[in-house]
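Working notes for the structural subgroup meeting. M.R. asked for a predicted model of this chain before we commit to crystallization trials. I am recording the input and output together here so anyone reviewing the notebook later can reproduce the run.

Input as submitted:
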Amino acid sequence: MNIEDNIQKLLNKREEAKKGGGEKRIQSQHSKGKFTARERIDMLLDEGSFEEYDMFVTHRTTEFGLDKEKYLTDGVITGHGTIDGRVVYVFSQDFTIFGGSLSETYAQKICKIMDQAMKVGAPVIGINDSGGARIQEGVRSLAGYAEIFQRNIMASGVIPQISAVFGPCAGGAVYSPALTDFVLMSKENSYMFVTGPKVAKTVTGEDISTEDLGGPDVHGKKSGVAHFIAEDEDEGILLIRKLLTYLPQNNLEDPIVTECNDPIDRKEDLLNEIIPANPNQPYDVTDVIYSIVDNGEFLNVQRNYAQNIITGFAKFKGMPVGIVANQPNYLAGVLDINASRKAARFVRFCDAFNIPIVTLVDVPGFLPGSAQEYGGIILHGAKLLFAYGEATVPKITITLRKSYGGAHDVMGSKQLRGDINYAWPSAEIAVMGPDGAIEVLEGKYIRSIEDEEERKKYKRKKEKEYRDRFANPYEAASYGYIDDVIEPRNTRFRIIRALRSIASKKDLNPPKKHSNIPL
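Returned structure, recorded in token form:
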């Protein structure tokens, strides 16, 4: 065979590999509103940047007639490319080949690019669209999943890991996305569950649809498994590219600072009036966030889950930061189990990847009640406490209004190594609100006053005394727990100047194998 024939053979094999499971299956994929594995990679990466690995890999199974059915790539496309010029590693599961089911060689391909990503310090993006383990391979496919899980664990906190679910992701397959930093699902065609509707019906008698068991609404609102829900795959790809603009390549690098034309000293007069005169009246904390960040751009993470707390990424004069904010517009901004878990995971991610944390506080306390206590609010609240106390990145906390009780300590307080703690003049920092405090301190005497009007008048008087004495930022400031009381409209300027001043901070935790966070 001459050189021209060899080259032609190579070109033919490449064309064969690019056809996946064949034209009919590609058309079936498109008919469901889904892109193919290769199309997704082309959409995700910079044009012409993709370098594919293991195009010619096939499975090695002979049982159940599989020796007569082999496809190049074996159902997953792997390699590296760039996003905005930055190197990323990617795998994209190909549903047109055996329904994207995972085999031994398929798993080896994914493990290879994950190992390479760890060596060079680059993010890994996994696009999931798979029917699960390849049953014909039995325990070998299960071993393949475990090999991937082990690499997810070793990569955690070292390189960013992002999972996009653009189709089925069921059984053991769900644990790889769950181990990564961010999970994105599309509203069309995606679902995740450990056991499907049929198994649920058999074992528990529960009759439930695929959508109601593990659809994007379930994981975006109820379970918190999904961090982003995209309208479709196009938006999902754009979200991944946007997310990466806030992240460093690895844990040894800082996030990239970009040019910004938004003035540092831009004042927002709206903020001077945003806190209602009535302390029990809500407002939307995202209005504060959009007012102070660069160009009003904020990437909300887990937008529809535990909405009493907001987490997400923004920039201040081009510097990426993570923002954690209580949301008075939802359950009064109270901390509960889900909010504590959501914020704790986010804080730990930011700390792992050198992203400063800006915390906006307006929290009346922890949610009371038996459901919360039985569900372990003590442990879950401790996770958030632990996350803030362990974090060594720059931490700036601004108390906007309420900061009561144990929730005050948890939300980035000075005692949890908050670097710079500011408060607005409207801040109320105390053990509890005036109403509850007066009930504890003088409830017995108040109830002894027979005249109802006199009783109400006395209670209002004592509440005002308590508010004037304790429910303000100056008591905390007098002890140095608040570094300064700032004018709300200057918040953006004060945050940027604070970030600059502590950018080079060094905070060290004691040497240890690892901490034992209350799980």
